[in-house]
């Protein structure tokens, strides 16, 4: 009968691995997993759904753990990344979520001099495994409080990575390609902006909200809510519907966050 000896690669596949995550205010993440006692080089592997991979070395830490760090300065392109542990030449093993300390992400406020926003939020995927949602935006328009009116939406926010010129304005763009675009005047106070979206001119469909911080000649910045600890806003942030007699007939309109946490408005005919 053949037997296995401790420390061989088969031991790595014997016990499910759980990873604890700690987020810092700069946008970095630290991953801690329980070590298996093997001597093979170990890496934490983040694999995006399109197959792109990022490997981070796992080093011994306290209490027999292995630790990998993903600093905010290391690019992690936007997307959903599945987390694995790889030991030596073994096949990577999916990680299960342990304890996530995301307190530093609540009401996170990057410095005004930040030229980009890096956001990484660990979460539990639908199959129960550990994944990381990543955003990397430069410049970025962060949505703040939304004011829900009877026939309009008030939006406030803050811009990062660029300034706000006196000619700044917002765009309400019909989704699905180069379709209707409506403009809204923006109030500016240093890096903060505000504007109102009236529902009446909007036809049925999805309308995406954009900021033009330098006017028509400058960048076009998607308005999103990223700076907190909620990886998927859509099922969490729900807003009341407004019944409006619009130019296109009777409609219901309401704001929502997309699967990418971008801010949009849905308009639906009611007759």
Automatic annotation (TrEMBL):
Domain of life: Bacteria
Protein name: Transferase
Organism annotation: Streptomyces gibsoniae
